[in-house]
Structures are given as structure tokens and as C-alpha cells.
Amino acid sequence: MTTAIWQGTVVAESEDTVVVEGNHYFPVDSVRAEFLRPSDTTTVCGWKGTANYCTLEVAGQSNPDAAWYYADPKPEAEHVRGRVAFWRGVEITE
After folding, report:
1. pLDDT tens per residue across span 56-84
2. Model pTM?
3. Contact 70, 50 (CB under 8 A)
């Protein structure tokens, strides 16, 4: 079981993550949506496409743009569609 934890709270948990460039991408239905807030931030990856970000909010604390996903990935990154990854202090345990 792979788990994403921030501020001592499990924000995602799954036995079905996909690892790309060292990041675990969790199925969207394994992410606790109550902790995600949409962000206007986007970035572009040359081979994956445009990433959209979310801010994590747990116990009154915010972690801006700590989660990201590819809503419409390029064909070579299709395996991350419908998945969310984390960074910026989010602990990933396996």
C-alpha cells in the first residue's frame, strides 16, 4: 500500500500507483478530495503535457500547489490520466 501523508493526515492511499520520474501517481478515487482546493497554476512538460495543480488544506494549514494531475496528457503519458501526484513536503510511504 502506498500512502501520501501531509500534516500527519493520509491524503491518498492505494495499491495501484504509477511511478513516473520518481513520483507516485495515485488513482483519483484514492485521493481524499476534501483536502484538495483547485489552483490556477499550470506547468507544461514536453512529453506529458499541461499539468494542473491543487492546494492541499489539512487542519487549517495550506500547502500551495502540492498536488498535480494531467487532465489531458499527451499520448506517451496516457498512463497518468486520472491520477494525482504530490510533492512539497508530502511524505510518500510504500
Report:
1. 999 999 999 999 999 999 999 999 999 99
2. 0.96
3. yes
37, β-bridge pairs = 55
Q: Contacts from 10-18 at CB under 8 Å and sequence distance 24+? A: 11/35, 11/56, 11/58, 11/67, 11/86, 11/90, 12/84, 12/86, 17/83, 18/79, 18/80, 18/83
* Per-residue CA distances from 72 to 5, 52, 69, 79, 91 (Å): 26, 10, 9, 11, 26
Question: Which of 31, 42, 32 lies closest to 84 in space, CA to CA?
Answer: 31
Backbone angles phi, psi at 30, to 5 degrees: -100, 0
The H or E element containing residue 8 is none
Report yes or no: 50 and 72 within 8 Å, Cβ to Cβ. Answer: yes
DSSP secondary structure, 40-77, as one string: EEEEEETTTEEEEEEEEEETTEEEEEEEEE-SS--GGG
